[in-house]
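Appendix C. Worked example: Putative PSP1-like protein
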Amino acid sequence: MINLKALVYGVEITKLSPILYYASNGEDIKIGDLVLVNTSMGLDVGKVILGPKELTFEEIGYEVTTILRRLNDEDMEIYEENKKLARKVKEVTEIKVKELQLPMRVLSARYIFDRSKVIVYFGSDTRVDFRELVKELAKEFRARIELRQIGIRDEVKMVGSMGLCGQMTCCSRFLRKFDSIKMEMAKTQQMLINTAKISGRCGRLMCCLAYENDFYEESLKCIPNEGTTIEYDNVPARVITVNIFLKQVTLQIIENNQPVMVKLPFDYFKKNCNTEE
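Step 2, the predicted output written as structure tokens:
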């Protein structure tokens, strides 16, 4: 089977949004250029972030359309004016939300290129009946209004925040999508299960728990868990601590409570782990 390939550019419509692939229109397009493209929302402006790159249609997963053009001077004027108008929409929406006493946090607004639609992003801890708000905004701005509620993780990504590490949160710096983060990752990495220490600004488990998880899983492969009982020098012993960086395990001989520190791999490890898997 022949995998047909296409020469494409990767485009983001908003900062750190999913990458959309478009074929070249013949212009000399470079990374960082603003281009006009067709999206599911309509005619929109995107930023070229990678390419040209050769990908199979199977890798792309959808039919590729062509970049319409790199933004010219007239397009840039429209684009800059749209950003100003969007800030006005946000301000007015915030005022009307207070007037209608809606439990919403207005995050941002943006026009698509031809101004036929304006999208207002908001966060909320509950479901919101915003029908009256949509009517008032449509009357005010004479455009199709789409109110889009986003989750708390996307909210922090959009607004930005400082992480516990002292840097900008990963989601607002480089993450394009959120992985599933599980409590087991913190346990695997032998972290103290303290919600305040392992939760991000969004209140969910920190995304960075996933970064080193594969290393820990591989390093702890076949190593007995803390609290388990194993056989050491033909006598039962309880595993007290495991230090994967020092490659050592602290045991306690059950019959006399004597602590023993052993380096990995020791006999139990050799017998109970198939390192060729």
